[in-house]
């Protein structure tokens, strides 16, 4: 594969290289101007964007700052260096042969490559249905977390992953995506209008086809895990019952039954693994698609911080008994 240039935005032109940049190495922590493409199992490009100052400037800056009492100046250099590694925009369909179109999601840029899709997980952070900022290395964390789970859940359901030629990129089989998100829940919690606690506290006892018992309190564990599916609406997700999904032709009954069973098995397995690591997987969402051979596949992402709520297991019971909110790792703070 030869060198070529890729413009990710009008202000920067990125040079392709055969060897990828390791963003955790000292070199990757410098502001970067390199992008690499490498594929081991598929003829598809992967991207790495970082921004590099001249070596002389780097060598002059670091020793002086490391030995300087001016901690704030050092912190500022580190902060600016890390921010330069944000991967906020990609434009591969305009520069890479074989990519037919681009779909820009809140976090992922998806490129059509015929029978496959190139999914680039960027560092964009979205909340409340809008993009708020970009966080260095966030895309890498999301992509590699999903890949870890995809590999470990193949005994439950097959998935669309073909290869991961870059830390931010997954090559996936193209399939027919069901317009339904399978939201799995193990606790009565949340604060949004569609959260289980909000609707329960408002008196709802039959939610998305689930009959809920009286007398539950916020953050209490459900008698059993449940699914509260939603339709993938343009602006926001809309809760829906299984019967409505089938009546509206969003899925056949057989497909829904199979996907829902897989979703609950995935959730139970995810809870077991999380607990082994001191965490409670409180709720999450799954998406499925149908392959050309008719089989149902897991797609999108699995048990990532973006798609899941986690609590600290060790302190949950004591805090719950004392009426305190659980310690969690699902909140993102912007400063």
UniProtKB/TrEMBL annotation:
Domain of life: Eukaryota
Class of the enzyme per the UniProt entry, highest EC level: ligase
Any Gene Ontology biological process: 'de novo' IMP biosynthetic process
Pathway membership, UniProt: Purine metabolism; IMP biosynthesis via de novo pathway; 5-amino-1-(5-phospho-D-ribosyl)imidazole-4-carboxamide from 5-amino-1-(5-phospho-D-ribosyl)imidazole-4-carboxylate: step 1/2
Cellular-component GO terms for this entry: chloroplast stroma
Annotated ranges, domain SAICAR synthetase/ADE2 N-terminal: 103-333
EC numbers: 6.3.2.6
Catalytic activity: 5-amino-1-(5-phospho-D-ribosyl)imidazole-4-carboxylate + L-aspartate + ATP = (2S)-2-[5-amino-1-(5-phospho-beta-D-ribosyl)imidazole-4-carboxamido]succinate + ADP + phosphate + 2 H(+)
Cited InterPro entries: SAICAR_synt/ADE2_N (IPR028923), SAICAR_synthetase_CS (IPR018236)
Pfam families: SAICAR_synt (PF01259)
Keyword annotations: ATP-binding, Ligase, Nucleotide-binding, Purine biosynthesis
Family, similarity comment: Belongs to the SAICAR synthetase family.
Name of the protein this chain belongs to: Phosphoribosylaminoimidazole-succinocarboxamide synthase, chloroplastic
Taxonomic path: Eukaryota, Viridiplantae, Streptophyta, Embryophyta, Tracheophyta
